[in-house]
Specification:
With 497 residues, this protein is α+β, with helices and mostly antiparallel strands. 43% of the residues lie in helices and 13% in strands. Strands 9, 14, 15, 16, 17 and 18 form a 6-stranded antiparallel sheet that branches. Strands 1-3-5-4 form a 4-stranded mixed sheet. Helix 10 crosses helix 13.
Length: 497
């Protein structure tokens, strides 16, 4: 019996919270929702307004379907308490306490497998939210209505400007806020960018259909996830930290951000090969700039190397990890802890470090000596301020390319475009750095330009043609929205104002 409970607990740990922003405007999805709603009206004690009921049905079944596509054994966790569904900017579909009622009806109709929430007192497993997952009947309905993954996306009015803080227990939560001219502009810019991404095909033709295995935290109870290309996961948002618009602000959300670098190089945009261009040592360069020093012109050495240490790529990666962790962490103790966690997590890359008994504290002190001009930023937690700067640089690049109708994929301090747009991207990255730093003499050292002629490479069996099917039909519509939403003023004029 105990063994069965343990197995069940492990099974339930393979879950993700209900995403209340799943949506689709396709008629096929609406037909499925109407079908389920009509069946619900025949149940005893049925009540509720059709519009609200159908909205909740759509959100629940779409998220169930997405989770099933990601992992057929995954559960969707949700809360049954009425206080769990707060209304506000982070719940613009107004998903409410109606959710448990919808779930109960779906269970009664045989569309869901369900496990009620549990508060563990037996020491076998911890408390958990209620869980649900699809049955053959729900999957059969999706198949009958010819519903595909491509029909599912984020609700268009999903909040994309996120202000986040920590509670007294150190848990993150989203902060409600009043809009001002700045947040309105950020949101308009992101809506335009997301509309461009909606009509852009982004994929890896050679990517395994069942995804790639992810590394697992040592003490994690979750089933190891697999990295997948989710065609509906292109919605980008900006996240600000510490309850302040001055901290963070980076762009998150695109599936390409979680992709290993060796696979990002195989991304195709609208059927064309791509290139990734990034800044060299950006955060170190920014810190030197804060001290009035142009790093690449005045210093010019690889910021992640130490004299007398091995010059191998693996050693450089480790030294880079230590240096950046020191800038992001508030104390040297937390730096050591963060590095050790990463080493334990990435044993394939860093296993040799444990064998050689390298002192992390010693490395931090050596870097403080080498980078004495910026040593006061070490163990200061200043990294979140640097993220604010690099996010404004990224904003400059993304907005200008969006105005020009050029899709770009952002990975914080690097960007992916098709090969024929690399020179334009290179130009904007340099311009953006200088503009945000208010110094047009600076050298940001942008790398990654490929010296090859751009071609539209065709993948065997017409895979690209199939992937891009239907894009052109929608592009003109959404590009009009892009042009109407974005101000045609240059970012230079905007920042001057």
């Amino acid at each position: 019996m105990i063994d069965e409970l343990i197995v069940k607990a492990e099974e339930l740990n393979n879950s993700e919270l209900l995403d209340v922003h799943r949506w689709s405007s396709y008629q096929e999805v609406n037909n499925a929702v109407d079908h389920i709603y009509e069946e619900m009206t025949q149940l005893d004690n049925f009540k509720g307004r059709p519009t609200a009921r159908k909205r909740h049905i759509k959100v629940v079944i779409l998220d169930l379907y997405v989770k099933w596509l990601t992992d057929p054994e995954m559960y969707v966790a949700y809360q049954r308490g009425s206080d769990a569904y707060q209304q506000g900017r982070y719940n613009k579909l107004h998903i409410s306490k109606t959710t448990p009622l919808i779930v109960d009806d779906l269970v009664s109709l045989g569309y869901l497998e369900h496990v009620m929430g549990h508060y563990g007192r037996d020491g076998i497993h911890t408390s958990h939210y209620s869980r649900m997952r699809t049955t053959d009947r729900l999957r059969g309905l999706f198949e009958e209505q010819s519903i595909t993954e491509d029909m599912i996306e984020k609700a268009p009015n999903t909040e994309c400007i996120i202000l986040r803080d920590l509670d007294e227990n150190g848990n993150k939560f989203d902060v409600e806020y009043e809009d001002d001219n700045q947040t309105i502009q950020w949101r308009q810019d992101l809506y335009a960018y997301n509309n461009l991404l909606r009509v852009t095909h982004i994929g890896i033709p050679t990517f395994p259909e069942d995804g790639l295995p992810t590394k697992q935290r040592k003490k994690s109870k979750r089933k190891p996830r697999r990295i997948r290309i989710n065609k509906h996961n292109k919605f980008v948002r900006r996240v600000f930290n510490n309850g302040s618009w001055d901290d963070g602000g980076r762009f998150y959300g695109g599936w390409w951000q979680g992709m290993p670098s060796e696979w990002r190089g195989r991304i195709y945009i609208n059927g064309h090969t791509t290139v990734e261009i990034d800044y060299s040592g950006l955060h170190i360069v920014l810190l030197y700039q804060l001290e009035g020093i142009d790093y690449w012109n005045d210093v010019g050495e690889d910021p992640y190397q130490l004299d007398g240490w091995e010059q191998s790529e693996s050693m450089r990666d480790f030294l880079k990890l230590v240096l950046l962790s020191s800038i992001n962490s508030p104390t040297i103790e937390s730096t050591i802890k963060a590095v050790r966690m990463e080493v334990n997590f990435n044993k394939e890359d860093y296993g040799w470090i444990q064998e050689e008994s390298i002192s992390i504290k010693e490395i931090v002190l050596l870097f403080m000596d080498r980078h004495s001009h910026i040593a006061h930023y070490f163990s200061s937690g200043y990294g979140v301020k640097l993220q604010s700067i690099d996010s404004r640089i990224a904003e400059h690049v993304i907005n200008q390319l969006t105005i020009e109708g050029i899709p770009v994929l952002c990975i914080h301090d690097s960007f992916i475009v098709t090969l024929d747009k690399q020179e334009r991207l290179h130009e904007l990255m340099i311009d953006g750095f200088r503009e945000i730093q208010n110094d047009h003499s600076l050298d940001p050292k942008v790398k990654g330009i490929k010296d090859i002629e751009f071609t539209a490479i065709r993948i065997p069996n017409n895979k690209i043609d199939k992937m891009t099917e239907g894009i052109s039909n929608f592009k003109s519509v959404y590009m009009n929205e892009v042009k109407e939403t974005l101000s045609l003023k240059s970012n230079m004029e905007r920042y001057k104002q």
